[in-house]
Design goal:
Elements (H helix, E strand, L loop, with lengths): L11 E2 H12 L9 H11 L17 H9 L13 H8 L7 E4 L1 H7 L5 H14 L3 E4 L3
Parallel strand pairs: 1-3
Antiparallel strand pairs: 2-3
């Protein structure tokens, strides 16, 4: 009987490939549509950032400034949706203890007629850069 040989698993670190995709394509996979940027820009234009409201509360706690944002025509009314690729990944791939998953961006693109547009766009980036399928390790 031959002694078994040690094997090596080839994989990408999920956080590294996401960082690469985000930098190369100038996107955010955790907030693809830019919800937080929209809100931050709105408050910045009004000079709220780094200041306290009339009740002495900061931006994150201010009901006054939230009410202004919510009622402004260019505020919450036209706020983009929150689109998070990581949330889609967690729903699609059941987390395991070791964090390894066989990621199939190509298969999703071929079989995924019901994919949200932002997921389809990000999957296309992954497929173009790393191939039809590959192993990733993600720290869930």
């Amino acid at each position: 009987m031959r002694k078994p040989e040690q094997r090596t698993l080839m994989y990408y670190d999920y956080s590294e490939i996401v960082e690469y995709i985000e930098e190369k394509y100038s996107i955010k996979t955790r907030d693809y549509a830019g919800l937080w940027k929209h809100s931050g820009d709105w408050h910045r234009k009004r000079g709220h950032v780094g200041k306290l409201d009339p009740e002495g509360k900061n931006l994150g706690s201010s009901q006054i400034w939230f009410k202004e944002y919510k009622e402004a025509p260019d505020g919450k009314a036209i706020e983009p949706p929150y689109e998070d690729f990581w949330h889609w990944m967690i729903d699609e791939y059941e987390p395991t203890r070791d964090g390894f998953i066989e990621f199939f961006p190509g298969r999703h693109l071929v079989n995924g007629d019901d994919l949200p547009d932002f997921v389809r766009e990000i999957l296309t980036m992954f497929k173009d850069e790393f191939g039809y399928s590959f192993t990733v390790r993600a720290c869930w």
